[in-house]
Amino acid sequence: xxxxxxxxxxxxxxxxxxxVTTAVNLAGGKSIARAAAAVVIAEVAVxxxxxxxxxxVLATSxxxxxxxxxxxxxxxxxxxxxxxTVSIAAMAYLGFDxxxxxxxxxxxxxxxxxxxxxxxxxxxxxxxxxxxxxxQLLTPATPAALAADPSSExxxxxxxxxxxxxxxxxxxLAVAKAIxxxxxxMMGLAAxxxxxxxxxRDDRFPRxxxxxxxxxGSPALATTLVTAVTLVLAVWAAYAPDGLDLLAxxxxxxxxxxxILLHASVIGYFAVRRRSGRRxxxxxxxxxxxxxxxxxxVFASRNALLVGxxxxxxxxxxxxxxxxxxxRRGVAR
Length: 333
Prior knowledge:
The protein is mainly α.
């Protein structure tokens, strides 16, 4: 949006988006669901129009790259480069797991939540693969040209649509993306506030953060806390030259690390504690996931790893203090 209204600073759009989505969050789960559904429908419709236009250009003018180029690269395949960028791209997939935080507000129970998570992951993955492949075929720029001008990489998707398909489609997509990103942030705020609420119930946060409002059922105090932290980080990212990339990488590192622990928990709970005989599902699959995620984390940016290490130390200290307090309470009883 800043590119369309350069007179308005980027941080102003960021702050406005955070405040508007926070208001929707405070209105309760039903308001969140309605807003999210409307935005998803609009975004899918816009993406469909873009893909139809791009496919029409491919059919009439042909591709600028080889049909296999999006998968194998131009001039050679680099596995290290792919793994290094996954930690940033992974941020686009983090939202599907947020569905789990709405288990208490779901009418279909835990099974419906699990199915929704898998459905969102598969659909989002297929759409990402399709649009990336089609636009890559229309990209006139070579990897060498992009490497020489890194600033052009951030707008490449829109530039290709503007120059190869239609300028108005690029504008429409940019507006849809801006609105969609804001409401994706809304889901992040909603999920984060419910994580804080759950941690407060488990005495990992002050108990006050576990309270929900009687009218909407939303954790108002937890939402306010998450909003305040998000607002500070988002405005900083809008100011800093590479703030968005660093923030995306850091968030991805945190999420990927959490998924590693989640898969380790699957092995510990089902294979060790419950002695499950389903070795493929409860041992092989999570072990493979741990290896893949571990490789991605190792090849993440240095700054993201430093920030992640800092948060790990803070978490370890907090966990140690809480464990010590719990043992003292147990002795006192």
